[in-house]
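Known limitations

Structure tokens in this collection are predictions and should be treated as such. Users comparing against experimental data should check residue numbering before alignment. To illustrate the layout, the record for 18655_t:CDS:1 is reproduced below. The input appears on top and the generated tokens appear beneath it.
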Amino acid sequence: MRLYLYPRVRPIVKRVFLQRVLPQRVLHTNNKECFVENLEGEDKGISIINLNRPSTKNAFSKKLLTEFEDAVEKLRNGTESRVVLLRSLVDRAFCSGADLK
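Generated tokens:
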């Protein structure tokens, strides 16, 4: 699989995803399974929706789905975001689908 990235986006993706640079505040989120992180500085205007439910490899539960919908709505109503990236904070998994439990 080849991933094409526009030249302007490539350094951002490399910094945010490939190097897995996660500030400490990302790791302490008051038990939120999905939350928005707005980047600052040269990356201003870029928002990241983070999925963080390691026990089920980000399977979508009712809580995660509600928090995801809230995050999308927050970004839709805000005017500062030009780009939205979706990121998993769970190692070796993005999303395992719906939580059937």
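For this record: The longest helix spans residues 62-77. Strands lie at 34-38, 46-51, 83-88. Please report discrepancies through the issue tracker.
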